[in-house]
Amino acid sequence: MKEKVFVKNKDIVTRKITDELFIVPVRGKLADLQRIFTLNPVAEYIWHSLDGKTSIDDIRKGIIAAYEVDEEQANADIVDFVTELLEADLIRE
Amino acid sequence: MECPEAVYPDNMHYLRDFTARSASLRVPLSGSLDLTHRCNLRCLHCYTGDHSGDMLVPEMDTGKIISLLDEICDAGCLYLLFTGGEPLLREDFPGIYRYAKEKGFLISVFTNGTLISDSIVKLFEELPPRIIEISLYGATEQTYDKITGVKGSYKKCIAGIEQLLARRINVRLKTILMTMNSHEFSAIEDTAKAFGVKFRLDAAIFPRFNGDLSPLDLRVSPSEAVEKEFSDVERVAQWETFLHNHRQRSSSDDLYYCGAGVTGFYIDPGGGLRPCLMTTTLAYNLLKGSFAAGWKEIASRIREEKTGRDFTCKACEMKLLCGYCPAFFELENGDARIRSEYLCTMGHRRRDNLQNISSKRSPA
Q1: CB-CB: which of A14, A15, A28 is closest to B78?
Q2: Does residue B48 contact residue B85 with C-beta atoms inside 8 Å?
Q3: Closest chain A CA to residue B27
Q4: pLDDT in tens, A31-51
């Protein structure tokens, strides 16, 4: 997964309300699931970095620098979160 | 009652922690936008609509509504209800709905279901709403059409529901329980079950906004209303959960302790911003000022409303069970601090029923 880049699904809108970032599915089947997603600060950092250019490895390095977490923890956070996003169809490779 | 969030338990499935944080910060998280008071039906119990014409107001144009959507989005609104009147009567409804969806609101629509067209179904299919709530006033053409005053409206409503469900749009049905349809209540509930959709009932009919008290004649007795409410185990469970989650709120000195003016707001078709649909005495004109300024004003003014020492409901432990609503009291009695005897009796009946259920579960 290290070299892979991901892009956000176009059928969603992100909303920042108070200190929470919400991912709101807008169109089609994704929105039909009646779900919204909220992100914690590390997840929010990862989410913003999924821009179709930044690789997973670069995002990992960014997390380590920004949140003072060790490499193992950063790896776990990013793999878990990206897998979750892929399963929910919120991002694509 | 068209209050989308106040005390009715099945509307409390919010993101609880986030809502509590939003309340402490006075974020206008949940809003109702009344697009028009016009309606193609003439329901006997309706508090608004164009029965006599004196409740119609010049409506905001499309551009004003779009700019308002931008403003309320910036202010933090997430849950948005489009209501009326009949919102689908506005020709610009599809454009307004589309714009709001693309802004990232979670949208509900209250409609009578008689104006569902192929293009509306396609719109909801492409941009799914959180829920489309349709009022079903009867289980037969005879009863439904008598209440709405429009021949053929029952068939159109049922066809509308079928059209939406055929395309898997999320529909919920509700009925306003009244003397004219109470004999069909079970059949209305069965209709909802047959459609496989959620259902709720509301018996708290209130006066028209022009002061006309005639809808009150349609109320069923509080005992009958509560009996029908408690005929369903799920609704009983909802009351129990609601009570469990909200016990601490009942000791407040604030006259209003629901979400109105805390996280909730209502905008009428003419641009009047209020804490909720029924608080007609607190308003801010959005044609003359911004949403942010209006929200600040009404959120502050509603906090200034206190119960007062002699208010009979102040220390009442049944405040959570009666559908307590000062705005309702104001409409019914002309004073927000004079309780509605109708709601009060319903509260007593609910308490008695819940106590009976509890004692049967754990006999002494």
Answers
A1: A15
A2: yes
A3: A18
A4: 766 677 888 888 889 999 999
